[in-house]
Design a protein that fits this description.
A hairpin with a 6-residue loop joins strand 4 and strand 5. Helices cover 0% and strands 51% of the residues. The protein is an all-beta fold and 124 residues long. It starts with a strand and ends with a strand.
């Protein structure tokens, strides 16, 4: 089973940028998609972005409007989430997750393995 470890969260002012990393290890052969989700206090976990493991194809939540970019390194061991023009409403715990499904998964129940999360706080 694949293991996921997020890093890169922190405190940033509105308008600033952060880059989150999701380091993968273990058995990745069944992994088709790596996604990023976030969960703010009192809210449900919501989809942010995902990348297809082999092809590198990307898809995003509509509300992002181009502010975030997902990518992976050539060795396919780390997935990144570049977050620009951050807003206070982006404050949340950000999770990366792995899915074995073969469609554009964006629901939490489509993902089988989760990291521990990293806190992102955007001050106004």
């Amino acid at each position: 089973q694949v293991q996921l470890v997020e890093s890169g969260g922190g405190l940033v002012q509105a308008g600033g940028s952060l880059r989150l990393s999701c380091a993968t290890s273990g058995r990745t052969m069944s992994t088709n998609i790596i996604g990023w989700f976030r969960q703010a206090p009192g809210k449900e976990r919501e989809f942010v972005a995902a990348i297809v493991w082999n092809s590198g194809g990307e898809y995003y939540a509509d509300f992002l409007k181009g502010r975030f970019t997902i990518s992976r390194d050539n060795a396919k061991t780390t997935v990144y989430l570049q977050m620009n023009s951050l807003k206070p409403e982006d404050t949340a715990v950000y999770y990366c997750a792995a899915s074995s499904v073969r469609y554009a998964a964006s629901a939490p129940h489509d993902y089988q393995t989760w990291g521990q999360g990293t806190q992102v706080t955007v001050s106004s």
